[in-house]
Every structure is written in structure tokens, then in C-alpha cells.
């Protein structure tokens, strides 16, 4: 047996270190610190927000991807069917939000009359149909009739006093009563200081007197 030749032969099962797959690190050793993150992955100073920052919609989407146009269901203009201050308030808000500023008075007047289903309101509109400013004059007259804040407050007081009695254990009815009281208190706070004519009208109302006696 040739000993010299045997010593130079490698066993097919003896793995050499050089034969193992090696990880390739072209510019750093395997134990060096990782390279700095690319610039696009590092948040800038403007993008960093403190942990106590107030929640807002910009936390969900960057400002560059936020929608600039409302794409939801188209809002509608409600009709005035009853001499109800609440109905008129919603009609007025809808007209203010949806009618363009650059359209004519008669265009606005036509939209308004299409949504007046109350006969007395239509009579008021008819009286200003030949006016130079039919829409503005009609809205001013209707606002005096139905849009005064104290009128809505008086209506809420009447609804509160004329409502059905709350049965014991009726949680939903009690919650609705609490919401009505909260809405009424908010309205009264927005009416201004005591001593005005409208506030005096509220204070002398029979429903208000009954409410004060509770």
C-alpha cells in the first residue's frame, strides 16, 4: 500500500471548510454593524410625530394621498312641510352649503320654491317673486317666521313638557329624555344674555314656568 498517496487523498465524506457555502459580504465582514438604512426608509424630522400628538386624520393617510374631493353620496335639500323651526333650520343650512355663490337670485329662488311644501311659506315666496332679490327677501321673511333661535328653544321646551311619562326601567326613554334636556340647555346657552326680548318670551312661556317648577 502506498502510504504517501493515501495521505493526499480526501475521503468523499470528509467535508472541508472551503467546500461549505460561504455568505458573501462584498463590502463588510459578517460581524460588522449593518449599513445605514436607505434614505427613503428613514423618517424625516417633519414626519416624526411625538407619542403624545393629538389624533387626527393625517395619522391614517399622508397629506399627499388624502382626497381633496368628496366622493360620498350626494347631499340633498330637505323640504319644508310643516311650520317647524327644526325643518326650516335644516333647509336653510342645506341651501347655504349647496347653492353656488355665483348663481343668480332667480336660480336660488326656483330651488327654494321647489322645496317649499308648506302653503303659507309658498305664499310668502309668491309675494317676493317679482322682487329684485326674490331669494334673499324670501329667506329673510321665512327666517323671521321659523328661523329664530328662541322659537326652536320654545318648541323643544314644549316637546319636553308634553312628552310621555318615562316608565321605571325604560333605559332608552330616559336616555332620549337626557339628550333632549342637553339639546335644550345648549340652545338656551347660545341665546345670549338675560334681559333680551326673546329670552323674556321664553321665561314667560307657560311651559317654561312648568319646567322651572319641576
Describe the protein's architecture and organization.
This protein is mostly helical. The protein has nine helices and no strands. The chain has helices at about 5-10, 85-100, 105-115, 120-125, 135-145, 150-160, 170-190, 195-205, 205-210. Helix 6 (about 150-160) runs antiparallel to helix 7 (about 170-190). About 10% of the residues are buried.
Helices and strands in order:
Layout: H1 3-8, H2 85-98, H3 105-114, H4 119-127, H5 134-146, H6 149-162, H7 171-190, H8 197-203, H9 206-212
Keywords:
0% strand; mainly alpha; 214 residues
Short summary:
The protein contains 9 helices and no strands.
In percent terms, what proportion of residues is strand?
under 5%
- By DSSP (H or I, 4+ residues per run), the number of helices equals 9
Low-confidence stretches are: 50-59
Give the proportion of residues in helices. Answer: 40-55%
What is the rounded Rg?
38 Å
Derived structural class = mainly alpha
* Cα-to-Cα separation, first versus last residue: 121 Å
